[in-house]
Amino acid sequence: MSFxxxxxxxxxxxAGVLSAAIAMPAQALDVSIDGLRNTDGDVVVCVWRAQxxxxxxxxxxxxxxxxxxxxxxxxxxxxxxxxxxYAVTMFHDAKRQGKPETNFMGMPTSAVGLAxxxxxxxxxxxxxxxxxxxxxxxxxxxxxxxxxx
Length: 149
Fold this sequence. Notes:
Elements: H1 3-22, E1 27-34, E2 42-48, E3 65-70, E4 75-81, E5 84-93, E6 112-114, E7 132-135, E8 140-144
Parallel strand pairs: 1-8
Antiparallel strand pairs: 1-4, 2-3, 2-5, 5-6, 5-7
């Protein structure tokens, strides 16, 4: 075995050890929900990556993570998030149907919300950037539930 081969193997091993030491462990994100009109059913919180399709429609799409908790608790902890940039949305599933209630136009009549609490509505659609959260820089957020109609 030549010196070059040994040196190359040692450098590879050292690089692997350093990258493992530098890699950040998975993080938790606490999401509190304020402003629900009642505590019936559940709150559903969805975590999205930029490449996830269907944002912000959590009921009809496949977000990166989707969790629910009793609305009476008003809080969801999302465990095991790799460090990175995400968007967070929520809806109040008062009847536990797996989707928000809507009017005849398909607009939600139950509470909905996004991280950072941007002003959204029929003429001001939610975007990934408006709901952006950086993990681990942000360990906890509060989403103010909004009723569009």
